[in-house]
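INTERNAL AUDIT FORM
Audit reference: QA-55
Scope: verify that the stored structure record matches its stored sequence.
Auditor: D.O.
Record contents follow.
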Amino acid sequence: MFNVVTKAISIFLFVLWSTTVSANIIITDFWGENEGVEENFSFTEEGITLTVSAWNINVNSDQDVISPWVMLSGDAGVYKGSTGLGVVSHADDGSDLDGGSSDELVSLGASVDDLDEGLLFVFSEEVNFLGFGADYLSSNDDLNLSVVNFISPGVIETNDIFIDREGQYDGYDIFPIFPGVVGTAFMVWVDGNDDDVRIYEAAFTKVPEPTSILLFGLALVGFSLRQRLTKK
């Protein structure tokens, strides 16, 4: 009976410890000084660097990929304004994160200039991504979030976490993920021609080092053995 109780307590303490170690939420704000358009922007919080770049994709209403993700460069890229991050895809594009009407353009045989836009968040180490905040929301705006895997430099694949999630409020709102998603790269993107927002902030936590978890586990084992010897 003692062994069963000890193991149960150890498991409970381990779970409690591993969740509280990573429970310090880190919030990176993207608002502030207007810095214009760059290929990427980097932000560092508590030793973790987040690099944000701008990408385009062309998907239809069924999420079928018509043309794959392409990173923007040159005069196009991430727009950092006083109210958050957006994407500038070309000279005639606005500075918000906005979706395109590419299905209609393709069906008419025209060139595709108005593609769906995304902001790629790449962290310098594995994190538990908790979500992001968006501004300039209205009732017709919805956003997507995907985990990103790099096939090769400049070539990515995405696994969707949610598609077309609407905010609860106009203006500013958060798009949380509970209890979070562990990874190093995430795409925040839009695919509707009515979508037009700024990304205001992102929230994440550090992932506990495996060595720290191992040491704590060994300490629990030692505690269990000492308790057993004490009872004898």
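Auditor finding: record pair retrieved intact. Residues 25-207 form a domain with the Jelly Rolls fold (CATH 2.60.120).
Action required: none
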